[in-house]
Amino acid sequence: MISVQNISKTFGKVTAVENVSLEATDGKITALLGANGAGKTTSMRMIYALIKPESGQVLVDGINTHDSPVAARAKMGVLPDARGLYKRLTARENIVYFGRLQGMTEQAIKDRSEELIERLGMASFINRRTDGFSQGQRVKVAIARALIHDPQNILLDEPTNGLDVMSTRAIRRFLKDQRARGKCVLFSSHVMQEVSAVCDDIAIIDAGRIVAHGTEAKLLEKTGCDNLEDAFVALVGGEQNA
Amino acid sequence: MNLKLLKTVCFKEILENIRDRRTVMSSIVMGALFGPILMVIILNVTINMQQDKAEQQLSVAVVNQEGAQNLMRFLVSQDVDLVTLEGSPEDAIKNKSHDVVLAISDNYADKFSQGKPAKVLMYHDASAKGVAKVSVNRLRALINGYDRSIGMQRLQLRGVSPRLLQVVMIQEHDQATKESRGAMLLSVLPYFLIMGLFMGSMYLAIDTTAGEKERKSLEPLFLNPVPRDTILAGKLAATVAFGMLTLVLTLVAFKLTLPWYPFEKLGMGFNMGPKVMLIMLLVLAPLALLAGAIQTIIAAFAQSYREAQTYVGLVLIVPMIPSMLLMFMPIKEQLWMMAVPILGQNLVINELLRGDAVAWDAIALAFVGTLIVGLLLAWIAVKLYNREKMLFAD
Fold it and tell me: What percent of chain B has pLDDT over 90?
């Protein structure tokens, strides 16, 4: 359960995020939908406590990420915008390294990696060095690495960006599995079909503000559109703003 | 700070960098072997050249040989090869066709027979390097010898004891030992040792900070429930470990190349026993911490690997400063100097090279002084990463 309350961030004179609030509840997939540069990555970075919001707060399972970032991070599994695998390590070594940093026992790391290798279909490349991996292989390893400690809250920044159909479907299936297990999933995206296909709740962000929040049906009803893309364009104030 | 997590980070950085052959080659092999091997080659080549020149037949270009036939006969009897010079002596020296040219003045024979100083002109280039000097000195010694022997004969002919000319006799007592003469030769050693450890940690300092930022793996790494200072401390530990490894290898490489130093030919000696090596290691070890920390701090401010390489490369000049200073300026060492990082190491190692027993308080001061500065810099490096600006390359 992630609760974001009125967070803001400015970089110099540019206001990147202003007064953003949203709730991501357990057992649901929540999307942060916005165009490029709308403030998705900055919002996500504040939510996963990498940077400090100038005002407002973020609670992860009731823990204030600002006051106790280390405890809050233990409750989260994050796939950041930057996948950043270690190229000189194998996929498995990448995953094990993060397991150790999560403070897991070697046995727990082993069991959990086997499970993730199975679920994400990584068996064919798990013992290879990640240098030269395809985009899809890289995202899978990065997800496995982020979720090695089986966190309750899963945050992903544009998880299917640049992936082919097969990889995209594999990731979607994986996220739906996680939802079924009662996890709280929050991901940011600018791809309408993506959001439409997997999300229960959608928060639309534009120019650093949340302009609408609700289920897809609710957003369509509110705007009177028959698809999410049209609804999105209507909500962010028309195409002239793009 | 959680030591287990620190170790996890440290071991991962070491594993990752050992797999990068280029890093291992450049930092460890270059850092450790470059200095000792370069020293062996340079010393041997110069000494062999000088020795060859000293043993070879001396060749002297002479202008106006007929002017001083007696002197010429003497030189030939001393196995000097006399060459008649065509052209001006100035040009012969300038275009290096001869090391030294002897010109006999026109009135040499007259002055000689009158018992007045007869002039010969010696052309040479006093700023010439190396072996040319050997020829000049040999010729000067020969002419001085001739001068003395003729002078003595003249006095004896007049019934005067040549000893009257010896008013003061200098008896030299050179207090230089074999070791201290060797120390002069080896005064670049501290520099190579310090340089080696700076080079050894350089690539890790860059790779674990600016490199990781450039590869965008810093963000996912910091998302783990590990305090940033623990992660940085782990990285710094790996960096320092590489510096230490290079240091140990440099010492071993130097020890192993010692038999190839031309000490015998120079009447010099250097005894590098286990105790000397251990003291060197002891005073240099905290410098590895200092080097790693400084390099990490500088690399932290760089946005890319390349930028970091430029800045950190400049830091390699720092260890040169005290070594250069000591080479050209004979500083009277004071105890407090031992506490100054790099300077203290230079002084202690120079004393060891001279074969002097180094006082334990000097060693302790060099160790503690550098350790304190190193720890302070390490603390700054570790805390730097609490700043958000340090995290992203974009």
Answer: 36
Assess if residue A123 is contained within a domain: yes
Q: In 10 A of CB A234, how many CB atoms?
A: 16
pTM of the model: 0.82
Mean pLDDT across chain B: 87
Cα A33 to chain centroid distance, Å, stands at 11
The one-character DSSP state at B258 is G
- Directed axis angle between helix B3-18 and helix B189-206, to 10°? 100
Please state, in angstroms and as integers, the Cα–Cα distance from residue B24 to each residue in A86, B28, B119, B238, B248, following that order.
18, 5, 65, 13, 15
Whether residues A93 and A66 fall in one domain: no
pLDDT digits (tens, 9 = 90+) for B349-365: 888 888 878 889 999 99
The answer on A236 and A157 residing in a single domain is yes
Question: How does pLDDT run across A111-123, given as a tens digit for each residue?
Answer: 999 999 999 989 9
β partners of residue B16: none
Give the number of beta-carbon pairs within 8 Å between A and B.
Answer: 74
SS3 A179: helix
Rounded to a whole number of angstroms, the distance from the CA of B304 to the nearest CA of chain A is: 15
How do residues A11-56 score in pLDDT, each as one tens digit?
888 889 999 999 999 999 999 999 888 889 999 999 988 888 999 9
Residue with structure tokens 């990889």?
A167
Averaged over A50-63, what is the pLDDT?
92
Contact assessment for residue A154 and residue A147, using Cβ atoms and an 8 Å cutoff: yes
| Mean pLDDT for the stretch of residues B13-26 | 84
Alpha-carbon distance B201 to B240, whole Å? 6
Q: What angle do CA B348, B350, B352 make, to 5 degrees?
A: 70
Nearest one of A33, A18, A10, A45 to A207, comparing CA atoms = A18
Asked if B272 is an interface residue toward chain A (Cβ–Cβ < 8 A), one would say no
ipTM of the complex in this document? 0.90
Which residues of A touch chain B, with CB atoms under 8 Å apart? Answer: 48, 50-52, 70-71, 73-74, 76, 78, 80-89, 93, 97-98, 100-103, 142, 145-146
Q: What is the CATH number of domain B56-171?
A: 3.40.1710
How many angstroms separate the CA atoms of A226 and A230, rounded? 7
Instruction: Residue A226: give its domain's CATH number.
Output: 3.40.50.300
Between β-strands A201-206 and A28-34, what pairing exists: parallel, antiparallel or unpaired? parallel
